[in-house]
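Example 3.2
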Amino acid sequence: MNRVRAYIDEVKEELLKKVTWPTWSELQESAIIVMVAALIFSLVVFVMDFGFNKGMEFLYNAFR
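Structure, written as C-alpha cells:
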C-alpha cells in the first residue's frame, strides 16, 4: 500500500511542478485550430467521396 501512495504522490508532484499547463487563451487558440483543421479535413473527404461517387455513377451508366 505504501508503494501505491508513493506513486500517487509522485504523480501529483509531477503534475503540479513539472508539467507546463496552457493558459486559457492558449487553450482556446488550440481548440479553434483543431476545429478549423477538422472542418477542412472533413470538407476534403466530402469532396473526394462526392467526386468518386459521381465518377463511379458515370462509369456505371456509360457501360450499362
